[in-house]
Amino acid sequence: MVVVDWLGLGLGSVAGALVSEGLKILISEAKKVLAFKSVSHELASTMESVLPVIKEIESMQDGMELQDLKDTIDEALLLVEKCSHVEKWNMIMKSKYTRKVEEINRKMLKFCQVQLQILLFRNQLKSMPSMEAIINNHCQIIIEKLDLLSGSPAPALVSKRCSVPKLNNMVLVGLDWPLVELKKKLLDNSVVVVSGPPGCGKTTLVTKLCDDPEIKGEFKKIFYSVVSNTPNFRAIVQNLLQDNGCGAITFDDDSQAETGLRDLLEELTKDGRILLVLDDVWQGSEFLLRKFQIDLPDYKILVTSQFDFTSLWPTYHLVPLKYEYARSLLIQWASPPLHTSPDEYEDLLQKILKRCNGFPLVIEVVGISLKGQALYLWKGQVESWSEGEKILGKPYPTVLECLQPSFDALDPNLKECFLDMGSFLEDQKIRASVIIDMWVELYGKGSSILYMYLEDLASQNLLQLVPLGTNEHEDGFYNDFLVTQHDILRELAICQSEFKENLERKRLNLEILENTFPDWCLNTINASLLSISTDDLFSSKWLEMDCPNVEALVLNLSSSDYALPSFISGMKKLKVLTITNHGFYPARLSNFSCLSSLPNLKRIRLEKVSITLLDIPQLQLSSLKKLSLVMCSFGEVFYDTEDIVVSNALSKLQEIDIDYCYDLDELPYWISEIVSLKTLSITNCNKLSQLPEAIGNLSRLEVLRLCSSMNLSELPEATEGLSNLRFLDISHCLGLRKLPQEIGKLQNLKKISMRKCSGCELPESVTNLENLEVKCDEETGLLWERLKPKMRNLRVQEEEIEHNLNLLQMF
């Protein structure tokens, strides 16, 4: 019988070494048990994976904290010993001990996923000057993109998923006294709820509180998380752990997440007080708040909600603005129209303020809509409103009623676009390209016009347009813009559709909790825009739904495994498919074949899903025009497309957009066979080291965008075959050492963007490129300045790189 002699291994001296030695013995013994080859080798594999981490903890002299793991190793060794005596033919005993080995393996994994990560994190803190030194993978890539690799990261850059949002530059009105009252209430209680009607400024007040010097001095750390109407406790805890350097941790259940949260908070409060802000908590989420309510003296929770939790926790009731503050805020947003007498202007203000009922959100939207407008438009707006006081007893419909005129005043085209925004999840951060791609197919307009629609909606404060990068959208590229929307404005969009029955609506949102479908799903659905959202408990057991008129399908998922519904194959009018995973890791996508041969499917966008790149050409989508893959995982790249004539299978594909796909180290060969391709964008893919020589086959390619592909060292010489290329973007390709020798043969190349590429060698042939425009930084510009005598029409536009921290909002 194999037993670890912990005393003989030096129990009294170095306890940490005992664990690693015990692991080595367990690994060795597990591999010997042939009758249980599969499960015993899985156990050995688990231990081999964790051994380096255990050794790291040993080096920090904290091995005694691994007592639980030592006990589990003893238990596992006894089990392995028993397994070694089971004969291969004894199926009953094999079944019994297989279950026991699997249970031990699960126990090991659970320890490694939670307690071990916390231990490692704690030990790292002891050897580092500050917690900000620990950054997760996403932020490291962002910092690389901002060219901060050579220095220490600024504290502001480590404001990740749970950071407090930034206030805009507008002067905040009417919040000084509420701030004083709320501050006192928070310092006196462990949990405080800020309650009030939607649109009255709860989030703004709490954000201002978090930025208050006294509060920032009182709390060592402030964490902020939006909860919304579909709370996910595990996801919030995962974000908190990852933001504090614990790595990407997955929980099997809420109980495990509670353990991880407690361990984290106990460790953090050793350094000072902690404040956790939970924004937009809905009625019925009391169970969620109790999970966060951990009895620690230096830990406080601040909650915002439109619902009242007075009977459970101390509550600060935020009321709409008083008249003088509301008036001041309206004047701030909308200056007086020209040729207006003071009395007339004051009369208009009073009527508008009477309608707005003191809601800052409503005042802001209405004020923006009137800013710079003529007097007759102000009068027309006021006259269109019905007379009479609005009762605040039921504030939610009151807010929507107040906002209704802003919707009614929209241009008909903008109305349609605004209504489509209700198809995305509450509090979702949406790439502008997602929305524009959908609108291109639904409304048949060009992307530049549709981007102007977004700007128009943003100018009227009906959504927010947040630039992530250089605030430019060259060649129809809109990935560098995020679109967000206040949940009340989203609700306004949804409410416009509720005048019709579900089955008759043009836009329809279907929310599936666990596996429960509403009864109306059994009938024919006539919507042209269908949004389906599922939670992390959904098992992909779909009803057979009939949706013959759907042209745009938006799927929002949270589960780790997700099978596409088979009824998609019946959507013969489908033009746009957007699949977005809101879970922590890429979701394994299956039943992809249901998309095969859809006659009108023109755009597919997949975000944070796991697929095989060979899946795409196998779909035989002869109408597909654009394929977007964002934060996707591909695993092994397959090249066997001998049975597929790619030029026929994807005969109309014009654009491929691959962004933040971290495991993409090379392109599949079949991409080089898409002769119809005009735009190829591969951005923020750090593992990409080379492009295939066959890329020169893409004779119709006009745009090649490779920005932030940091491991890319050179472009293939075959690039000279891209005879129609007009724009090349190699910005932030920090490892790029040279351009192709014969790049000068690309006579249609008119623009190169190459910021932060000062180490890239320019071949002599570039002087053959006439009328070339180069966008770069000052250092890279020096490479081109020396060529100006030979390139009279060369235009070098040097731009200072501003570190845009909005980029952190993507993750």
UniProtKB/TrEMBL annotation:
Which chain regions cross the lipid bilayer? none
| One GO BP | defense response
Identify the keywords attached in UniProt to this record, alphabetized: ATP-binding, Leucine-rich repeat, Nucleotide-binding, Plant defense, Repeat, Signal
Q: Does the keyword Manganese apply?
A: no
User: Could you tell me which PROSITE patterns the record lists for this protein?
Assistant: RPW8
Give a Gene Ontology cellular component term annotated to this protein. Answer: cytosol
Protein name, UniProt field? Powdery mildew resistance protein RPW8 domain
Q: Could you tell me which species this protein originates from?
A: Arabidopsis suecica (Swedish thale-cress)
